[in-house]
């Protein structure tokens, strides 16, 4: 019996180590080459922790060679670990920014949660914007009301009252009906600074999906371009709002369907990223990309979209920086990527549960 337990233990350690090593290279393996690589990317932090625990346990049960081998494999995980965790000392976010700095807030507002402009969710989102006073606000899943309604320009009016006199919508043409109100979905950029230029970039041919937009502004008399988009959502829980089950129960019962959905959507992400990255690389002025990427930092999607840009949270944030509060506690899927001509001064993820995403806020200036 002891031999069987010993054999099972060694096999378990070897299998875990093999899975961990695959997850270490998740950022470099295309989902077209290995379709289930998104799962390895998602579970990397948990594999890393499990390898540490089992390696240490091996020392206690006198399996020092196996324990030492497992500890050595952790070095292969350092690149992914450094993208998952921001190893900066915790610091409070300074609401008062420098005059020479640009403050950007990016947020998937979940369609403002409700189409009723008098809802608590709408006012809560606007209050977060007001409290942080960014120069630029990028919103994904923005619902723009277009039919006759007593408050059909509610958001625009409220944002303008806070000083955001310039705005640009993607208006992706997907009309939906909420409580008798007709809306168009998409991304939006609100700015206190005037636009030099603006445009829309098609990243999907599906009329029900969102595309990318950009605006050019000036910071200290130098031009820069801001892109925002939301990559395709996994839509894992769209039909669960009326279920009384816990989100983790739903995940368990649907685990196989979720695995295949992760695989298929990551393939679509790879196509979207190729279009986005090509547009960014052909931009003649320094660029900033911010938005809901719907992929973790250890993914192929993140690696190729970020390219040689800085991740604002890794530069000045602290910890994991979770931006999506459902499913697992390590989902940082909303980012601000900047050209290296910018200096990141501070960055934070606001932990307000209004949308299903948390906003990411950063201050930057020219180097």
UniProtKB/TrEMBL annotation:
One Gene Ontology biological process: DNA repair
Pfam families given in the database record: Exo_endo_phos
Record keywords, A-Z: DNA damage, DNA repair, Endonuclease, Exonuclease, Hydrolase, Magnesium, Membrane, Metal-binding, Nuclease, Transmembrane, Transmembrane helix
Claim: Transmembrane helix is one of the keywords in the record: yes
Cofactor: Mg(2+); Mn(2+)
Membrane-crossing residue ranges in chain numbering: 7-30, 36-61, 68-87
Record-annotated Endonuclease/exonuclease/phosphatase domain positions: 105-357
Molecular function as annotated in GO: endonuclease activity; exonuclease activity; metal ion binding
Full protein name: Metal-dependent hydrolase, endonuclease/exonuclease/phosphatase family
Organism for this UniProt entry: Parafilimonas terrae
Lineage of the species this protein comes from: Bacteria, Pseudomonadati, Bacteroidota, Chitinophagia, Chitinophagales
